[in-house]
Amino acid sequence: MLDIQNGTETIIQDRTIYEDANIFAPNLHEMGLMSKRDFDNYFEFFQTLKKMVKPPDLLIYLNASVPTLVGQIQKRGREYEENIRLDYLKRLNEFYNKWIGAYKEGPLLVIDVDKNKFGENEEHLGEIIAKIDSTLYGLF
Hints:
By secondary structure, the chain is mostly helical. The protein folds into two domains: 1-54, no CATH class; 55-140, Rossmann fold. The chain is built from six helices and two strands. It has a two-stranded parallel ribbon with strand order 1-2. It is globular, with a radius of gyration of 17 Å. The two termini are 30 Å apart.
C-alpha cells in the first residue's frame, strides 16, 4: 500500500484495508470465531495502519442484492466459493452496506449492480466511466 501511495502509476485495487477491519473481522467476532481481545487488538492495529496510508482517491462500491451475489459466484465457478453459506453472504452484505453508509474517508461512487450490468453492456460501462471521470476530475 505504501508502494502504491509513493508510486506514480494509477492503480486500481480490488480490496481496501477498510473492508477487513469493518466487515470481515467484525463478522468473525460476532460469529464467535474471533475473541473480543483479538478483535480489539486487530482494530487498534488497523487504526494505526490507517494513519499511515492515504485513503483511495475514489472508492467504488459495487452494491448488489444477495441473489445477484449468488449469481456472480455461480458464474465465476471458483471451487473455494462453492460452499459459501447463504446466511454468511447475507451477513457480509449487511456489514458492507452498513460500512458504506458511514464511509467518510474520501470520494465514493456506488454502483447498483442489480441494475447496472457493466460486464455485459457497453452502455452501462460507459455510464460508470463517465461517473468516475466526473467524480475524480469534475468532467461531465
